[in-house]
Please model this.
Amino acid sequence: MNRVVLVERLVPNLYRLVLEAPEVAASARAGQFVMVIPDEKGERIPVNLADWDRQQGTVELVFLNLGVSTRKLAGLKPGDTVGGLAGPLGRVPEIPDPGAVLLAGGCYGIGGLFPLARELKQAGRRVVFLAEARDPAYLYWEEKIKKYVDDFLTLFRADCLGTGRELKELVEEIRKDRPDISLLMVMGCSYLLFKLSEAGSGLGLKTMVSLNPIMVDGTGMCGACRVSVEGRTYFACVDGPWFEGRGLDWQEYFNRRKAFLSQEERALARLDREFWKRME
Amino acid sequence: MSGQDRLEPGQAERLSKEREKDWRKALRRELSLQKRLSIDRQPMPEQESGVRIKNFREVNLGYTQELARAEASRCLDCGQPGCVAGCPVAIDIPTFIKYIEAGELEKALEKIRETNGLPAICGRVCPQEVQCEKDCNLVRAGKAPVAIGHLERFVADYLCLREETGAAVSAGHDRLRRPEKIAVVGSGPGGLTAAADLARLGFRVTVFEALHLPGGVLAYGIPEFRLPREILHSEINFIKSLGVEVRTNFIVGRTASLEDLRQAGYRAFFLGTGAGLPSFMNVPGENLLGVYSANEYLTRVNLMKGFRFPEFDTPVPRARKAAVIGGGNVAMDAVRTALRLGASQATIYYRRSRAEMPARAEEVKHAEEEGIVFNFLTVPVRFLGNERGELQGMVLQRLALGEPDSSGRPRPVPIPGSEFEVEVDLAVVAIGQSPNPLLIRQLSGLKLGRWGNVEVDFRTMATSLPGIFAGGDAVRGGATVILAMGDGRRAARAIDEFLRKG
Model:
């Protein structure tokens, strides 16, 4: 039984959920995820671990309220229990020595990258954090992250729109002032992963992305999350979720994430109807 | 292995001692052999095929008490029964059948449960035709074998579903308490059997399950129309009533390592981690939307109850033309599921011929009655998609049977120039699974076989690491429920011995 300790909205549509899960907290490593089932009729969805507290026996998740499952999670109250929580899952990313690491996160990825920032810093690495958001009002955890990074940079929509600048130039600029950056790690929406992977790889900078495909069991049993890297198929849940972005078949990745789009829309509309019925 | 070798130590004597009891002798005299031989095998009542393809309820409806007694009286209660040796968990089959004939159903169930913790499941999913029923002496007399599976199922259903926890049957056992804690990894048939036997031996047993519901392949793989979930729950409750603790959402190897569990006081381990790594064919287009592993397709439907979407949140693909690749039980389950989810055409493509199909005879019969189309000696060489990456068809190649391969079955050989195209919007790949590597690859020094399977001494199911035993599909690749159970049973005995030696 995993009890809810806290649910809060960090910024519009992004939520923080703290759950009791002492065993998961005890084994959690930066860059891993958990499978969560919102309620007894719910789906199993992967959510990145954004933090944990071994003493308290809790884990923290940051997620975007987007579909049925995340809407159910966002609607939980302290004291509720979730249908299930299992983890930690996924391989711990291998981070080559030496050099500074540029962590680039958008959306839930800002929270999801926090444990990596902390772990790298504690291991004595130089860490540069790039937080991507629509505008400053959508930024969260700035103070929390700043404690563990050498540089905290932001990327807002206004920085790109109308300036004609490519992301590649931006990464190049960041690197110009910090030539010791040897690795770029990205977490967030698929488009950000794709664009930054393109930018990083174009500059010859090793770029790792945390993929978030559809999963069912999350333990390598079903293959729902298969992705192609340089013509070979991998299961993101057990071989990933971190992959080098360069050789990834991005078109396939985008397609496969939409496998159940029409059903997902239907289910969300149904949940909305139920919600309004209760409100009447 | 010959028949007699497969009997457990001392079993031949136990069987004949039971057979010589007075009630058995009296019962044998009640009907002459001729009379018994003249009774026909009682057919299993079924949902009619036109009705059942529109629902997920069980196809077989089960014997009534009258049918069961008639069928039980067909058993000749012979002196040298072939059935027991054919049973991987060595159930005393003649005794339980004779108890049915005598109307003593509680005693029949108790007899079965002495060696089999999951009778309602085995009665449904065992391939009886190649096990207990194969060597039934009625076959030698030119008759159909006693319907042992149907009878096992009858007894289990009749009583299990009535008992709250099943405790009534187990309570009679005088149980010795043992202090050692044992961890069983995986709650499939192998793990549950090992757990039940170890609990009966008095050990404190915890079963760790990675998914949110216990049962392993019984929960995620086998559809409700073959194994209703209340049956599974009732069997698991019975095992819990023996004192077994089941912890779901606990991934040994991730949530805690085996070493962590050892530190926590677990003295021996049974790895029943299953064959949860689906095989794909590695042909072009296999990652198109609409191509699924059987594991994913069946997990969505069975474990996640996707067939009740949107009441349950997990969506399942709904297809017009469904193709399932493979000829085993998993393929039959997938293709019949596709039909029930509304496919207007559901087709099996199998690379060998009908004779080589590994599926249970009853599943093939049911599939045929339901209108499943079978295409033998064909294999997909390419999946075809549209610009959105959605499956639209596949290119198949015809095969011919050649020389036997390492499995002893004729090897399918491609016929050049025989490619043809079919239109499909769902393809389920059901060509087998290999052992799930998540845990077993972490254990340094654990000897693995060619297919990533755990190597064991089959007499004891001991692995190359002391105190660690394994069984079921983790050892065998894709096998059957009952073989996994036999493994669990042998492992439980060996764990007991291992701990006695200290």
